[in-house]
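Researcher: Let's do a round of design. I'm pasting the structure tokens now; please hold your answer until I've finished.
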């Protein structure tokens, strides 16, 4: 169906074969939805229904589909753009919805961009991530009550991975906390959780402190790969998981030695008005080092090889850090914090399910979220993240399985398109980096 046909008052028949084209439509509660991007072939037949008859009269900007066991949809009618949106379009990036944003998923190919980061360097626009700033003499104690890790352990200029939990111990978000001053902390949160995290923290501060949402005025880039420090020679002295104020190409920045790829590199924060210049300069000066612009597709394959969890997939408000294998980021010794009671009980008594990493042992289609995990002929869990690993050349993923079946080395099967493909539970990370 062409986009200009959307205004027709008659009804259209939609099936999975017609879905991958821009301008296609989906249905939810009798409404027709235009899809502005290519999301790939998705089966849209609900149980006992060969096709969906829908009125073609509604335009939206985002749709997320889950077809098993019943058709369901989450609709957001407007997508946000980072300050680099025009640059991505100019560079012919393929744009997709992600966490309420329209983001570049790929520029050339996921394989090419993945390889660039592993072997040279890649540049990502991560300006969709949120930045919350909390200040005041009580800022540290406030964060220690809200987060699982102990911010007292980091000095000015250091960074720390931590988790924001609800009272049930479920993961609201996983964050990076940067201590940028003695009484000031910058918290980088996931894109889809910016407002939720801000409201959660605001309602539970409990002590005098100033919380500000800096997300709209701040942009963020990630320069990742072994050549990153060759390009940013003046930043090479920043230790791992530290942050410093530096001037890059005449632009005031905060440069952190952090990332989400498993490679050395930097995450760079600057004023939103300056990021287009910074993006162009990094790509221009980085050309000699093989730096390439990279999209979310490569970011996902890179993080999954390292078994870095994705919030919303591998963690959510019904899953705890203990179940997710993140107990090393839970500082029980610091005293009380939100969710501590539940997490302490799980630490002592164990959990029913665990997040494991697996690798296929035979050629198979890529494992995907929602696929069943079986052991000894019966279902024991579900895939939460999966892909074909460009580096390992095989299907990989993570998923929650029953604890008795969660032993490293255990043989499992992944249900893919009606067949079971052999896999094995592996020790994290899946990609073993050389010292």
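Researcher: That's everything. Go ahead.
Model: Designed sequence:
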């Amino acid at each position: 169906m062409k986009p200009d046909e959307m205004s027709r008052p008659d009804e259209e028949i939609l099936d999975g074969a017609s879905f991958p084209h821009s301008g296609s439509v989906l249905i939810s509660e009798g409404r027709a939805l235009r899809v502005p991007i290519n999301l790939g072939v998705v089966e849209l037949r609900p149980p006992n229904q060969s096709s969906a008859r829908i009125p073609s009269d509604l335009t939206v900007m985002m749709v997320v589909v889950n077809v098993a066991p019943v058709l369901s949809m989450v609709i957001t009618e407007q997508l946000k753009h980072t300050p680099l949106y025009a640059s991505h379009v100019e560079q012919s990036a393929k744009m997709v919805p992600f966490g309420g944003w329209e983001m570049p998923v790929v520029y050339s190919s996921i394989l090419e961009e993945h390889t660039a980061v592993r072997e040279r360097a890649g540049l990502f626009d991560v300006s969709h991530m949120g930045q919350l700033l909390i200040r005041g003499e009580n800022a540290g104690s406030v964060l220690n009550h809200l987060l699982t890790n102990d911010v007292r352990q980091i000095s000015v200029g250091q960074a720390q991975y931590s988790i924001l939990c609800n009272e049930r111990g479920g993961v609201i978000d996983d964050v990076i906390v940067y201590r940028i001053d003695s009484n000031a902390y910058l918290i980088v949160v996931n894109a889809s959780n910016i407002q939720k995290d801000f409201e959660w923290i605001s309602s539970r501060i409990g002590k005098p402190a100033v919380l500000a949402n800096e997300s709209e005025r701040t942009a963020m880039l990630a320069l990742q790969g072994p050549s990153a420090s060759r390009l940013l020679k003046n930043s090479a002295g920043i230790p791992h998981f530290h942050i410093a104020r530096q001037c890059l190409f005449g632009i005031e920045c905060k440069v952190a030695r952090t990332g989400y790829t498993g490679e050395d590199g930097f995450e760079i924060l600057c004023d939103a008005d300056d990021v287009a210049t910074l993006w162009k300069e990094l790509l221009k000066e980085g050309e000699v080092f093989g730096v390439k612009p990279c999209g979310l597709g490569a970011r996902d394959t890179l993080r999954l090889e390292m078994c870095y969890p994705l919030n919303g997939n591998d963690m959510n408000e019904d899953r705890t850090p203990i179940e997710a294998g993140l107990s090393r980021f839970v500082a029980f010794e610091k005293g009380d914090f939100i969710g501590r009671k539940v997490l302490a009980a799980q630490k002592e008594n164990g959990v029913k399910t665990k997040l494991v990493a697996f690798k296929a042992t035979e050629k198979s289609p890529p494992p995907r979220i929602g696929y069943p995990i079986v052991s000894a002929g019966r279902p024991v869990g579900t895939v939460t993240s999966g892909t074909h690993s460009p580096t390992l050349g095989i299907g990989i993923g993570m998923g929650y399985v029953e604890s008795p079946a969660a032993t490293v080395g255990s043989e499992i099967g992944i249900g893919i398109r009606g067949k079971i493909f052999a896999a094995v539970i592996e020790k994290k990370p899946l990609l073993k980096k050389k010292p």
